[in-house]
Records
---
Amino acid sequence: MLGVPTAPVTLQLFAELEDYSSDGWFLTYLPAIIRKFVRSGRLKIEYRSFKTNTISSETFVKQQAAALAAGEQDKLWNYAYTFYLEQGKERTPYVTERYLDNIARQVPGLNVREWDRGRNTDLRVEQVIEEDQQGRAEGIHVTPAYRIGRTGGALRDFTGSNAITYQGQIHPTTYASAEDLAKAMAQIH
């Protein structure tokens, strides 16, 4: 989670670390959302793992578990940011143990030994699998994908106004901007 637990609005973000679209939203749109809504205490963002572009399911689970383990130390967002900055070519086997360790070593303040123990637990693996299944059950098809609502209440699908469609893609990818969030938050009572 990013933000204060008592924020009145929750945004669930379904994302994948090897996905260029998630990378684009995270690096381009998220900073303004953090400045405008998260730091003011109006919004909290919950990260959810969702597989779209990683070739291997095993690699997907490993990389997402690594990010979630960093989250145990309040460093998930730092880990994901660094991963996106160093992201390799989609659908290639660039994510190795060495790659994941290198990302962890670059995150300021991350206890790498504790992180390594945390990422290799059954609990972390189960969390990644459950989040992916939850997204599929809720009709998520692409990343990034969003659900928004009053904290503690029902969440609804939310799409940004900046749509991108790739050749052969059935469901468009959208980037939710700070302006999109402002409109959505104004409609939440």
---
Amino acid sequence: MKVALIDVARVIRSKNSGPFELTLDIMFKEKEMYELFKARNLINRELIATLYGVTPEEILSVVYFEPAQAIKATLKRLIPSGAPGDRDIYGAQQHGPLLDLEWELT
């Protein structure tokens, strides 16, 4: 069974978590799919680091948040919010790499 994140999540977004950090939120439509992702640790530091071209040490946290059936990952921003060269002051357009994720689950 092939599972695409965009098919099982009701929300995939990014936002600032202060001027030096970015948070990625993935909220699942169904509890069963959230539980499957959690049990298999499908979203983890290594995956986020690879997607965003940083080291795993730059991923500050990956939290499975039960009450919202959500995964929250926080990483260091490459350029602080509002600094010269920053093209997304609110961090709201940084979730793009998550949109193409899919897994072959057996």
---
Amino acid sequence: MRFPIGEWCIRTYERRDIQALVKYANNPNVCRNLREAFPYPYTRRDASLWIESALAQDEETHFAIATGQELIGGIGFQLQGDVHRRSAELGYWLGEPFWGRGIATMAVRTMIDYAFADFDLVRLYAYVFAGNPASERVLEKTGFVCEGTLRQSVLKNDRLLDQKIFALIRDTA
């Protein structure tokens, strides 16, 4: 799949993305606001395992954010099950050289459209660690609303952090 977003795009991961994935993901400034499943240091093995899992998706929900030449980040959503089956958790990251250009906002808007059009979803939500106002702003600009703060709910780098939960509800009327 491929979705244009300005001069960039959201697309299916490719095996050739491994080098760029390591280049941009192996950055403490990127990793500090992500779960530990996104490791630091980020190795070639980590990149290879991620890309192979992305290529094996039954339903494509995880994508590369890319220029015409290389991957510069990632975005996707995790479909939920059981009583949460009409919800999905959104996540995204961008290589530091590309921060502040509106790319994440465009990418989130595109994922919202795709998730609500192609999946039986009513709710998208995202968690943001305390101290990440840029990500909060991306979500607010794309229509997400802060539903609350989960106090000391995250242990990251040996520190307990608050996190905020943001959600967007699709109009089903």
---
Amino acid sequence: MKIRFVAGFSLIVESADAAREFCGQKLGLAVEFEADSRYSTVNARGTKHFGLWTLRDAALSTFGSETWPPEHPVPQATLELEDEDVSEAVSELQANGVTLVQDVRTETWGQVTARLISPDGLLIGITVTPWLTDD
């Protein structure tokens, strides 16, 4: 694998409204709500991307279902690692015995992703995020 940087970190939340209120009003962070996707971006210095993602939307994106499958631990966050080549990284992960929960695909927002779950339940994305790179 050729991890270039942490592309993003998102809290996975049950309630988008409660998460926006907590981060915006309690923590004083600038939160931008993306009404068309039910996703929120938190503007925090020092991050490439910090988001609030509902469990429902994480399940839809990862499994194509509105509910998180009971055979997988419910994640509280997702960490996205930017790699030079997602397909190559996936091949290396699989050779090392890692099981993916989502194979390589291009998301509707243009990011190439593959996802796995760590032993402790962290949803990890291996990504290529075109708008975060200069090349």
